Structures are given as C-alpha cells and as structure tokens.
Amino acid sequence: MLNIIWSVLNVALALGFVYFAFRAVQLVKQHIGLGAALFLSVTLLIIGCSKSGKPTSSGLPSPNLLSGVPKDASLGNASAIQHINLGGTNTLFLRAEYWLDNGIIRPRGLYAGVSGWMSGHDWEPVYGRLEPQGSQVRYTAMLHHHWSLLGLRVFTLSSKVFEGVMPPRK
Fold it and tell me: Could you tell me the pTM of the whole model?
C-alpha cells in the first residue's frame, strides 16, 4: 500500500510541476509576448526531457545473480520460475536455470525481474544463490529497493532478502 501511495505522490507532484509550468508560460505570453513564451516552453521541455539517469533495462537481459558461473557457460536444460508479490502492483519474477542430469541438479543461473507500475520505485537485484534440494531448487535473492521522488533518489532499503523453494517446471 505504501508503494502505491508513494507512486501517486510522484504523479501528483509531476502534474503539479506541469500545471505551474503551463501557468508560467501563459504569464510570459501575456506580459512579454508569444516569442518569449515559445522560448520558455522549449526550454522547459529540454530541461524536463534531458534528465540523465541510469539507462532503463527494458529489452536487455537481466544479469545472472549467481557468482562463479562463467559468462560463456552453456545454458541449462531445465528451469523453474517463482513469482513473489512485492506490494501494490509490483511482482518479483525469479527464474532459476540449471542442468538436470540423472536427477542431479547443477545450478547455472538465477535471473530476477520486477514488473508492475513503479513510479518512484526501482528494484535492483544484487545477489543470488541456488542450492539443489531433492528435485527442487532452494533460492536466495537479495534486492535493493530505491525510493525516488521526481527521479531523485531519496531512500534505499538495503538488502531485502527473498528465500524459498522452487518446484521444477513441468
């Protein structure tokens, strides 16, 4: 619930800034002229759109959270998926990839992704571990939860740990 309230606060503040910018452009147009109002509009758009932050990871594969697995290692032949509700509309998706050979599990990768409406939130996967447990896989994933207000990082919840068991995918 707190995630949704924080997201609504971010949207409300952004709309407030848009309203005040619109009013400022109207005042400049009324008192100075159309040319100055257009110049102010273009300047505000450039400032608003040129926010340099970390690039978004959309379209890029998520990094492997397991340490010690070479980058050129072959892919596994089996996988398991776990969905974890993070609150609000956010869901953590964990995918375990492993070799399954005669009932023996050898972990190859753990990948994390977060979906949902996240205005003012950023989840950063930091660490992961997979351990065979019979025909299942026990996982541990650590994520940092960054809280931002209008794109500026305000607070970071360090090391939120998620643990559990993933049944094999059928």
Answer: 0.70
